[in-house]
C-alpha cells in the first residue's frame, strides 16, 4: 500500500480519478530498474532524449510504469501528486495524443509537479505521446536536457517517429509486463523495427546565447 503525504487532498480533490495504481507499482518500478535500464539505454540519445518511460493502463484502468529514471515517477507516487498530473488520466490521453508534460499539471500543484518531474532531474522539456490498442492505453513519456531552442515544435513535427520509438520500447519490456498483467487479458502486441541511429533523427537549432 502506498503511503502519501497528500492522501486527504488527493482523495477529496483528485483530477485523475478515472485510473488506479497497480497495487505493487512501487516495487515493480524499482525491482526491474536495472533490467529496464539495460533494455532501453541504447535508445537514450535518440531525438536528444535523456529519459524514457512507458505507462500502461489495462482494461481495468490499472496503471503500471516502466522507467529508465524511476525517481521521476516515484516521487509523484509517494507524495500523492500523481492524481494531479493528468498524464495518468485515460480521458486526457483520448484528447491529447502528444503534449508537453506541463500541459497535464494541475494548476493547484503546478510548481510542485514541475519541480519533481523536470527541474529536479535537470530536464528542459518533458513530453508524452499516447496511443490506444484495444482496451489498453500506452503512454510513451520522454524528457530531454537539451538546451536547443524550439524543442517542442521539433518533437511535435516528429510524433510518428516518437510513437515508433515508444512502440519499440514497449516491445523490449513486453515480457516483463506480462508477469504483472491480469492473465485474462490479451496483451497488446506491436510489430516494429529498431530505430536507426546512423543519422540524427532531428536537426535542432542550438541556442548560443
Radius of gyration: 16 Å
Number of helices: 8
Q: Under the CATH scheme, which class?
A: Alpha Beta
**Poorly predicted sequence stretches spanning 5 or more consecutive residues:** 1-12, 198-209
- The number of distinct structural domains comes to 1
Instruction: State the CATH architecture.
Output: 2-Layer Sandwich
CATH superfamily membership: Transcription factor LuxR-like, autoinducer-binding domain
Shape: globular
Sequence of secondary-structure elements: HEHHEEHHEHEEHH
Side by side, the strands of the main sheet go 1-3-2-6-5-4
Round the mean pLDDT to the nearest integer and report it.
87
Structural class label? alpha+beta
Q: How large a portion of the residues is in β-strands, by DSSP E? A: 15-25%
Explain this structure.
This protein is an alpha+beta fold and 209 residues long. It has one domain (18-178): 2-Layer Sandwich (Beta-Lactamase). Helices cover 33% and strands 17% of the residues. The protein contains eight helices and six strands. It has helices spanning 7-13, 25-31, 33-40, 71-78, 90-95, 110-117, 151-156, 159-178; strands at residues 20-21, 51-57, 62-67, 98-100, 125-133, 136-144. A six-stranded mixed beta sheet has the order 1-3-2-6-5-4. Strand 2 (51-57) and strand 3 (62-67) form a beta hairpin.
Amino acid at each position: 500500500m502506498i503511503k502519501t503525504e497528500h492522501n486527504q487532498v488527493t482523495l477529496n480533490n483528485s483530477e485523475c480519478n478515472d485510473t488506479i495504481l497497480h497495487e505493487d507499482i512501487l516495487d515493480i518500478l524499482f525491482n526491474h530498474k536495472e533490467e529496464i535500464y539495460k533494455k532501453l539505454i541504447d535508445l537514450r540519445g535518440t531525438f536528444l532524449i535523456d529519459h524514457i518511460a512507458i505507462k500502461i493502463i489495462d482494461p481495468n484502468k490499472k496503471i503500471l510504469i516502466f522507467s529508465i529514471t524511476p525517481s521521476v515517477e516515484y516521487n509523484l507516487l509517494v507524495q500523492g501528486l500523481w492524481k494531479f498530473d493528468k498524464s495518468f488520466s485515460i480521458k486526457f490521453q483520448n484528447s491529447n495524443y502528444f503534449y508537453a508534460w506541463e500541459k497535464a499539471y494541475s494548476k493547484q500543484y503546478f510548481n510542485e509537479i514541475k519541480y519533481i518531474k523536470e527541474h529536479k532531474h535537470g530536464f528542459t522539456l518533458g513530453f508524452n505521446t499516447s496511443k490506444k490498442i484495444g482496451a489498453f492505453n500506452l503512454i510513451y513519456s520522454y524528457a530531454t536536457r537539451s538546451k536547443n531552442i524550439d524543442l517542442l515544435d521539433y518533437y511535435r513535427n516528429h510524433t510518428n517517429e516518437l510513437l515508433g520509438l515508444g512502440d519499440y520500447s514497449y516491445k523490449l519490456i513486453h515480457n516483463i509486463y506480462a508477469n504483472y498483467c491480469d492473465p485474462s487479458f490479451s496483451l497488446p502486441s506491436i510489430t516494429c523495427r529498431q530505430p536507426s541511429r546512423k543519422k540524427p533523427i532531428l536537426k535542432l537549432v542550438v541556442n548560443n546565447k
